[in-house]
Amino acid sequence: MDYILNGFVEAFRLIFSFDPEIIQIVLLSLFVSFSSTLYGTLIGVPLGILLGINNFRGKKVVSRLLYTFMSFPPVIIGLFTALFLARSGPFGQFQLMYTPTAMIIAQTILVTPVIMGIVFNHASTSGYEVVQTGKTLGAQGLDVLILLVLELKGVIMIALVTGFGRAISEVGAVMIVGGNIRGFTRVMTTFIAMNNNMGQYSVSIAMGLILMTISFITNSVLYHFIIGDQNEYQD
Amino acid sequence: MNIKTSHIVKTYKQKEVLHLEGQHGELFFESGQIHGIIGPNGSGKTTLMKIMAGLIAPSSGTVHYNDHPLCQDIFSQMTYSTHTPTLFSRSVYDNIAYPLKIRNYEKELLHQTVNQLLEEFEIKNIANQNARHLSGGESQKTALARALSFSPKVLFLDEPTANIDPKSIQLIETALKKRNRDQGLTIIIITHNLSQAFRICTHLTFLDQGICLFSDTPEKIMASTHPTIDEFISFNRF
Q: Of the candidates B89, B129, B150, which has its C-beta nearest A151's C-beta?
């Protein structure tokens, strides 16, 4: 038990020492995860809405594929991304392997189905009614899209936070395409995994606490936007 | 706006839900009137209304609006509201203002129009409430105020007073008759309440199992000897 308690003590010391390496790792993690969530949102939200509100042949197959991709293991995505980005792969000429860009690409592939699936699910169930109502009131084209995005804003927020949560917490994909290179592609999860393997539990616990704090902050923001919003109207 | 339907047929999953052929193959909904569509559940009333409102396409047959087929210009002059309206997740005020905002109404005119409707429908006290948290009657009044805000030429209503209190029903009926009288608004209303149909409608269309059995004045429906219509009227009396 002592090594766990000592680990926590050491963790707090490490956090408040503002170690430049720790700060750099946290900032890179946030940059990679925020970037992939942003790209995932830009791709997943419009596609999810488009597929959700329209009825077409093969929609059930599309939804099954989407839900399958939502639970795809990060290592598999990392592996496929690495195969494409490796020097001998189709995109080898761009020399992206073991760079933060490769990590962003892998995480974007990971989070896009998550964001798209959540938006698709809600757009399928309630989006059609909103679109029909908007149209009967005179909305056209862009008006309809804006209306739908505003009506689904709570769902989009949930999708965004879920996507970010998946991105920041995964280790498999970034380990394979990033390589955990110190000062260059090392992020919080790969740092924790590495130190755990080395038996350095205190730094692992410190990084774990930072990771949990970030998770708490993002969820608090979500709570403020969704639950806080509803309370405001119930006055 | 006159609306004329010709030989409308609608099929869902190989089942015919509407088949307007024969004697009542063509239905005429005259401009400036209040038309009621009545009949038992599953008779095709909502399907017919959605086809006329341009929300769904018929499997065969045509609908003409002042002798023209449906186009965006005509579509934007009509609106549709049901007994379970989809209100947007924003305040009652913003729901009513929505059709005006997308039509780029000036701020002052928008505010004046919305306030008039809030007062007319007696919902000023809930103007700032989120429309998703309203009672049935409040929702209906908000949906109707929103539908009327941009002064459409045709208003389609699918059971607008279902499950709401008598005072709200009276308020809604008064508002509808006023719009019809003052602005010549054409109203096409589905109702299960025969006494309401007689109170406000100038013309009635009776559907049963996707077929039109009758389309004429309310007085003439009373004189009908058709057993289905007779049975429907008898049940409504009690």
A: B89
